Amino acid sequence: MDPAAENTIPKLLARNARQWPDRTAFREKDFGIWQSWRWAEVNEQVRSLACGLRALGLRRGDKLAVIGDNRPQLYWAMAAAQALGAVPVPVYQDSIAEETHYVLDHAEVRFALVEDQEQVDKVAAIKDRLPRLEILIYEDARGLRHYDQPYLRSYAQLVEDGRARDRADPAALDAEIATGTGGDLAVILYTSGTTGRSKGVLLTNDNLILTARNANASERIKSDEDVLAYLPMAWIGDHIFSYVQACHAGFTVNCPESPATIMNDLREIGPTFFFAPPRIFENVLTQVMIRMEDAGWLKRRIFKYFMAVARRCGARILEQKPVALTDRLLYAAGEVVVYAPLRNVLGFRRIRRAYTAGEAIGPDIFDFYRSIGVNVKQLFGMTEASVYITIQPDNDVKPDTVGVPMSDIEVKVSDAGEVLFKSPGVFQGYYKNAEATAETKTADGWVRTGDAGFIGPDGHLKIIDRAKDVGRLTDGTLFAPKYIENKLKFFPNIKEAVCVGDGKAFVAVLINIDLEAVGNWAERRGLTYTSYTDLATRREVYDLIQSNIEQVNRDLAADPNLAGSQVRRFLILHKELDADDGELTRTRKVRRRIIAERYGELIAALYGDRDHVQVEAKVTYEDGRSGVLKADLAIRSVATVTAAAAPQPLRKAS
Predict the structure, then answer these.
(1) What is the mean pLDDT of residues 219-238?
(2) Are 427 and 207 in contact (CB under 8 A)?
(3) Contact by Cβ (8 Å): 571, 613
(4) Which of 52, 309, 396, 623 has the fewest C-beta atoms under 10 angstroms from its C-beta?
(5) Which value, to the nearest 10 degrees, does the dihedral of the CA atoms of residues 17, 22, 24, 26 take?
(6) Distance between CA atoms of residues 14 and 26, nearest Å
(7) Residue 654 confidence (pLDDT)
(8) Which of 478, 434, 428, 469 is nearest to 450 (CA)?
């Protein structure tokens, strides 16, 4: 096969239509029923949409914004733009109007294709400040019957018009597709903006397709896989897993009915190939623990007994390593009674490989899934790498590493401890930001990840923290905030944690409780509450969180490098950290600078001698309204453990 025949997504779609015309390419659940499209149908839809967009004036080099939940039609819109040599720009569907305005304006978007009325309203509200935006296309017409803006177009009508044009002159689109090359810009994906304004990452067809090809080959991903496409389309992870790898391998992409039905849809589909950031795996485990707490005493006892067996030998059985006959027989019994039913409830009954990345996952959470037979592995990647940098090989999986370099990728650690890489997926640059590009890419082709880490004698890469976040306490003790935060977030009661301590005498932490987990805990104990703030300020809840922090301190005390970074003071925040308030990115990463500025008074109180602090904060509600929240927050001191007296780290009971 001529490599040029498969060097763009539209060319891959045409190949799939020829090679697997009747194989299911996409599914979407609508009104409770799964709708399916074959590869031949998908290719025809993409061609029709491309011809319709061409008739409207979309040309090579133009930008097409795509905004909405995971919908087959939105993936096809990206392929249609690429067929014309235009560049799709996916936008986070939950972005507020100002965030959306920034991306559409910065990317110089001419056309926008959105999912529904909600997104139409959002873009229409800012269109007068987007002079380059000419056409707004909507896929779901519900609620839009009386919208008469001259720039609005219907997706259905566009496809119908395009289908007629393609039938009349198919050679015109064929010529456009043939013109595309591997070096053409394929997409602009905006970073989450952890430290400031989002940057537009420029990725070519070669970046994406070569990375997908290598990943599919090394992980043995074939055309019979099923993936659930539920992560934001604007995120590089979804773009690779649910779009480029799917088009390259020819497997099936399943789109859930709505964000609210994801867990039910996951159970129905039972994907074979699954990715989730650590927070998703943590949330699922929290649900399991809540349900077990509510179960009868016999079920709880059976569950705890067989989970003890799983912790002892489950991962070794998964990796086909030697296990004592007694344990193997007990595990087989547990497979019937606990593990298989649990995987089925979680939607993991058919999982061949599952991945997590984005930040470190708690070792106990990681071990839990592997112990019940879920082949979850960690990988290390970033938008600027087209995702993949390192991945854990099968049968060489370690909870505290992110694996070894993928095929055709080089990784090294600088003298300052920063991880750098080279790969076929290396981005071309940041759109209209040469200065940031030069800061990230070295003259000899290496990319600075911004992460601190080291490569062990086994060749595995271990990430410590973001390089810029690693600091020192005043006594010189290493301070790695994310490492401590991840240990805290292992507990289902803690949804978010923000540690401070660089340049200070000790570590302190701001805590967000998990409302569902702690609420369930409170109800079982007859504790009444009216709101998140009310629950978060209860003395009993402070006692609960303090016990979790003390457990983390015992774990830290067992590590001579981190024993001095135990948490000494904490408070529970009066509100949940929120992306709409600018405190988290759209991928739920903490914006530390914003937190330091917004909660400066609380941080100062943690390092003073006060045991209470009054707070008054502006909050943004789901409907866009804002308000002021007042609360009296307690500040607690926590016992620390001397390294010499530290017992072996305790594991959280499952």
Answers:
(1) 95
(2) yes
(3) yes
(4) 623
(5) 50
(6) 15
(7) 29
(8) 469
All domains of the chain in start order, with CATH: 3-275 (3.40.50.12780), 471-645 (3.30.300.30)
Maximal CA-CA distance, the chain: 81
Q: Are strands 200-204 and 185-190 parallel, antiparallel or unpaired?
A: antiparallel
Q: Phi and psi for 107 in degrees, rounded to 5?
A: -80, -5
Which of the pair, 489 or 546, is modelled with greater confidence?
A: 546
Give which of 377, 295, 297 is closest to 341, Cα–Cα: 295
In this predicted structure, the answer to whether residue 584 has a pLDDT above a threshold of 70 is yes
For residues 403 and 461, is the Cβ–Cβ distance under 8 A? yes
- Residue the block writes with tokens 């067989």: 306
Q: Measure the CA–CA gap between 359 and 365, rounded to whole angstroms.
A: 13
The structure tokens listed for 469 are: 């976040």
Tens-digit pLDDT profile for residues 235-286: 999 999 999 999 999 999 999 999 889 989 999 999 999 999 887 888 888 7
Is the separation of the CB atoms in 407 and 423 below 8 Å?
Answer: no
Q: Which residues contact 261 (CB under 8 A, 6 or more apart)?
A: 29
List of residues 6+ apart from 417 with CB closer than 8 A: 452, 453, 454, 464, 467, 470
Q: Which two tokens stand for residue 65?
A: 């914004």
Distance between CA 576 and CA 508 in Å, rounded? 18
**354 CB neighbour count, 10 Å cutoff:** 19
Higher pLDDT, 192 or 97: 97
Q: Please name which of 253, 308, 650, 647 lies closest in space to residue 490, comparing C-alpha atoms.
A: 650
Q: What is the mean pLDDT of the chain?
A: 91
DSSP class of residue 240 equals I
Range picked from 119-133, 573-587, 612-626, 637-651 for highest mean pLDDT: 119-133
The amino acid at residue 511 is I
Name the pairing type of β-strands 87-91 and 200-204: unpaired
Length of the chain: 654
Residue 316, exposed/middle/buried by CB under 10 A (0-12, 13-18, 19+)?
Answer: middle
Q: The pTM is what?
A: 0.82
Residue recorded with tokens 């537009």: 200
Query: Taking 70 as the threshold, does the pLDDT of residue 196 lie above it?
Result: no
Distance of alpha carbon 380 from alpha carbon 454, whole angstroms: 13
* Residue showing tokens 């039609």: 73
Distance CA 375, CA 395 (A): 10
Q: CA-CA distance, 40 to 19, in Å (whole number)?
A: 9
Query: Is the confidence at residue 590, as pLDDT, over 90?
Result: no
Confidence class for position 647, pLDDT limits 50, 70, 90: very low
C-alpha gyration radius of the chain = 25
User: For position 648, what pLDDT does the model report?
Assistant: 44
- Per the rule left: phi > 0, alpha: psi between -120 and 50, beta: everything else, 153 is beta
What pLDDT is recorded for position 2?
Answer: 62
Mean per-residue pLDDT, 331-343:
95
CA-based angle 651:311:639, to the nearest 5?
Answer: 0
Backbone angles phi, psi at 602, to 5 degrees: -70, -40
